[in-house]
């Protein structure tokens, strides 16, 4: 398939109106989208990703008004949208227009991306854009244009060229379709930010009294965000001791806080391939770099990626969740 790679929002909107599938960057991660009113096009996304068919897509909008045309927006939902949108938050709301994909579901995840160019494109498409993260199902989301091109050039109808994702992890997902509201996926907008508006916000109570696992959000039951390499999530001290032991093994890679890893000046013993290690100075920088680093490690055939635990405080919640998911079963 010939893929149109362009920053021209009109051309890319044309493709969507004709039933095409387009990969596009958002402030969180890349998305792979189609018109929410075109069931066939939306179903193609599942085929391309290998996504389980019971995992619904969220819809991307250009404005709060356009969300109101397809969902019930309660007073509190509107306050959240006014406070955190455009931005990295997805609200799952009761749906009022049944033609929006997925038709059979009474709820819809809605999100307004931050980049005005992306909103202009959505506006131009004339419909909401249903889009999961652009990645193969179960693998880390993509955050670099070069990675998006490698995976999707020749596979989708178009790739919209615009600013690359900065936040690096997927949006916070909040379920507002029942009381109490529930945090379905942690992200850059953290539970403390949300609790100012939703004091009764609950983390998903996913284990019933009989011990069954009942995922409140379909996406939660699938393995997620894992590179091919093994991911080991370690507290700082353990991370440092492993680093000292294994750093010369060319099949290992390291991501953590520079103050732990920085060799002291003049310590020549620490000379080795710097591309296998990524220094960060905050949880935000860590999130921003994480998936691109995973992707890079897979490209160069790394076997084990050692990740230092995030620091206490801002930016920890979403990052720790992704690191835990990536390191499950390792
Ligand atoms: O940052 C993001 O949210 C990115 C960009 C492209 O916007 N999108 C994204 O989509 O991460 P996806 O499909 O990979 O993750 C959406 C999550 C999934 O875990 C899905 O199960 C959940 O939201 N979800 C979607 N619709 C839902 C619904 N109606 N009820 C409950 N959970 C829902
Ligand atoms: Mg995803």
From TrEMBL:
Tagged with keyword Repeat: no
Its annotated compartments are: Cytoplasm
Q: What InterPro entries would the database entry show? A: DHBP_synth_RibB-like_a/b_dom, Sua5-like_dom, Sua5/YwlC_C, Sua5_C, T(6)A37_SUA5, TC-AMP_synthase_SUA5
Q: Which UniProt keywords apply?
A: ATP-binding, Cytoplasm, Nucleotide-binding, Nucleotidyltransferase, Transferase, tRNA processing
A matching Pfam family: Sua5_yciO_yrdC
Q: Where is the YrdC-like domain?
A: 6-189
Q: What is its main location?
A: cytoplasm
Give the EC number(s) listed in the UniProt record: 2.7.7.87
Q: What does this protein do?
A: Required for the formation of a threonylcarbamoyl group on adenosine at position 37 (t(6)A37) in tRNAs that read codons beginning with adenine.
Q: Which family does it belong to?
A: Belongs to the SUA5 family.
- NCBIfam families (alphabetical): L-threonylcarbamoyladenylate synthase
Q: What is this protein called?
A: Threonylcarbamoyl-AMP synthase
Q: Which organism is it from?
A: Leptospira levettii
């Amino acid at each position: 398939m010939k893929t149109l790679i362009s920053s021209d929002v009109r051309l890319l909107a044309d493709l969507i109106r004709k039933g095409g599938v387009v990969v596009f960057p958002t402030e969180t991660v890349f998305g792979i989208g189609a018109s929410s009113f075109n069931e066939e096009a939306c179903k193609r996304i599942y085929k391309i990703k290998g996504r389980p068919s019971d995992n619904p897509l969220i819809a991307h909008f250009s404005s709060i008004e356009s969300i109101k045309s397809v969902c019930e927006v309660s007073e509190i939902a509107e306050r959240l949208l006014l406070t955190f949108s455009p931005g990295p938050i997805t609200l799952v709301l009761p749906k009022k227009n049944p033609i929006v994909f997925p038709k059979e579901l009474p709820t819809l995840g809605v999100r307004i991306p931050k980049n005005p160019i992306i909103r202009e494109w959505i506006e131009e498409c004339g419909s909401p854009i249903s889009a999961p993260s652009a990645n193969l199902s179960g693998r880390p989301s993509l955050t670099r244009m070069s990675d998006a091109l490698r995976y999707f050039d020749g596979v989708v109808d178009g790739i919209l060229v615009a600013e690359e994702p900065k936040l690096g992890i997927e949006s916070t997902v909040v379920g507002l379709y029942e009381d109490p509201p529930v945090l379905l996926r942690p992200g850059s907008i953290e539970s403390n930010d949300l609790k100012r508006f939703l004091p009764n916000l609950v983390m998903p109570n996913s284990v019933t009294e009989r011990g069954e696992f009942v995922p409140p959000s379909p996406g939660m039951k699938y393995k997620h965000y894992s590179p091919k390499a093994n991911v080991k999530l370690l507290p700082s001290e353990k991370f440092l001791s492993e680093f000292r032991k294994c750093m010369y093994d060319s099949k290992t890679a390291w991501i953590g806080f520079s103050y732990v890893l920085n060799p002291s000046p003049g310590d020549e013993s620490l000379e080795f391939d710097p591309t296998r290690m990524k220094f960060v100075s905050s949880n935000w920088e860590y999130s921003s770099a994480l998936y691109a680093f995973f992707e890079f490690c897979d490209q160069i055939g790394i076997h084990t990626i050692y990740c230092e635990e995030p620091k206490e405080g801002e930016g920890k919640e979403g990052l720790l969740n992704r690191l835990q998911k990536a390191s499950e079963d390792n």
